[in-house]
Amino acid sequence: MTDATAPAAPDSPPRSPRVSARLDENDLPWPLRPWIMAAICALAGLGFYLLIDHHYDDALSHWRSALATGVAVAAVAFVLGVELRRWHWALGFALGWGVILGLIAWQTAAYNIQGNPVEWPFWSGILAVLVATPLFQTRRDVAPDWRFWKLWAMPYERLHSHAWTDAVIGAASLAFVGITFLLTVLIGQMFKLIGINLIFDLLNDEWFGWMLAGAAFGGAVGLLRERDKLVSTLQRLVMMVLAVLAPVLAVELVLFLLSLVGTGLQKLWDSGFSTAAVMMAVAAFAVLLANAVIGNGSDDRTTSPALRWAAPALVIAVLPLAGIAFYSMHLRVIQYGWTPERIWGVIAAMIALAYGIAGVWAVVKGRRDFDDWLRPQQQKLAIGLALLALFLALPILDFGAISTRDQVARLKSGETPVEKFDWAAMAFDFGPSGRTALAGLAKSPDQARVRLAKWALEAKNRWDLNVGGASPDAAALNFAAKPIEEKVRVLPAGATLSAEAYAALDAPGQCRAERCLAYRLGDTRIVSVGAGGLVVVFVRDSKTGKWEQDYRAFGHDGTDGRLTADELERGTVELRTVARQQLFVNGKPVGADFE
């Protein structure tokens, strides 16, 4: 049922007489690979920097986010998957995924008003690339032609080996990037000691950092690919180390699941942690360790009794762990409704359930030789996961629209009180549907909803909607929704503030959910204090006229205590000149004042 290993492709170069360090004899030595890969990734790093370089006060253009993502993904996919043999296949694979991820980043950046492309669909696309890469490498090695619709008919041993090798090479290359930066910093400091600042100055330039990171990563990947016999040894060492942990986790999981029979699931919900996230993380580790034990094929099957029994135990444990995660997500949805995060969580739990069912079926059919039944199932699951991840990353299903309909229905039915409604998520997480729903709520006959909906629509970022505390009451929300002018007490009596000054006061957030006061000192300085007692000084720029925080002059009140709303609203406020004692040496102050 598997394709026979293909002969050397017609476009392969003539076989070299020198001894190859490659695992596959069809992959000839390529001495220039590290330099070529380093150059490609260095140019990709420079291009990435040029595309993302912008003033941080302004949002990055959507097309620049998309192009930067495409460049990065295409470069990494190409250097990880290319061989001299059928190199144009790798180029097409990399460019195709670069275009797909670039379009996904464009769509994601345009979805919410923050313009951030790194959202759930983006990570789903990255997962699709990671899973698709070893599938492509295996098909490239064994396929007689370019027909890719027989992905399920590939030798599992080669597919499994590619997956582990890619992970080891990727991790080692990232570690090499860190070592490269450390070495460059040391060299720069060494030359700086003798007055040569060139390297040190280059490290302070972002473009150089991105090029250095790209060159280090590409060079490391190229070097390791040319020594994949050594990488294979390292891979087996990693699998051996992980396999030793398999009995430990297997015993712990058996004891944990048996304990749940007596304690029930309620303690999981009362723990304060995300039960679904913990269960799925443990299930993922169980799958990883089980695969480390069963290896690439039957020849890798361990003879250790402890490991032979640990692997099926881990595989079987995935199903109850996934079931608990799915049930936990089910309860969260019943209690609080749908959100995009919960939809993604349910999908992840269903994927874990599918693997758990496949694992239990393999153990039942094969018993101690369950791995012979599990491997083809894992291959099909990997193909299905790549396709599902790509489908979910594309703008076909709008999770924000689904969540919006559910959350608004819960609000209107009274199931979700107005003070518990997630206004920030509606404005910034649910996409166009969420903001459209807020516009509709702003026209509601319920004045509380109107005020809060307008507040959410006018916010520039989700932090402007943070009222403090995990469960703010209706009064706190209503106060937070008021204009900043109604939340600030201006002193001395008769003083007024401009709209620019109010905007500056609103920026730190201390006036967001609680009353604060502002004392104007002439035309160029304002001193502000909030309920927490933090004093913030604002200075007016004489050239631009803008009010900005003076970070050299702020601090907590002397009593280290909170100020009540009554004190801020009606308390006596005085501006006093206070004498301090401090040491001076040659006319220069030394240390802080001490009296």
Question: If you had to describe this structure to a student in words, what would you say it looks like?
Answer:
- A hairpin with a 6-residue loop joins strand 4 (534-540) and strand 5.
- Strands 1-2-3-4-5 form a 5-stranded mixed β-sheet. It has a two-stranded antiparallel ribbon with strand order 6-7.
- It folds into 4 domains: 33-226, no CATH class; 231-393, no CATH class; 399-480, no CATH class; 488-590, no CATH class.
- Helix 2 runs antiparallel to helix 3 (87-111), helix 5 (156-192) packs across helix 8 and helix 8 packs across helix 10.
- The protein has helices at 33-52, 62-81, 87-111, 120-142, 156-192, 198-203, 206-225, 228-263, 266-270, 275-294, 305-336, 340-366, 370-393, 399-413, 423-428, 431-441, 447-458, 474-480, 499-506, 565-570; strands spanning 488-491, 516-521, 525-529, 534-540, 547-556, 583-585, 588-590.
- The chain contains 20 helices and 7 strands.
- By secondary structure, it is of the alpha+beta class.
- 61% of the residues lie in helices and 6% in strands.
Number of helices: 20
Share of helix, binned: 55-70%
Rg on CA atoms, Å: 30 Å
Tell me the total number of β-strands: 7
Order of helices and strands: HHHHHHHHHHHHHHHHHHEHEEEEHEE
Q: Overall pLDDT, averaged?
A: 83
Largest sheet: 5 strands, mixed
Strand-residue proportion = 5-15%
Unreliable stretches: 4-19
Terminal residue distance: 86 Å
For the record, the count of structural domains works out to 4
**Shape by Cα distribution:** globular
Structural class category: alpha+beta
Q: Order of strands across the biggest sheet?
A: 1-2-3-4-5
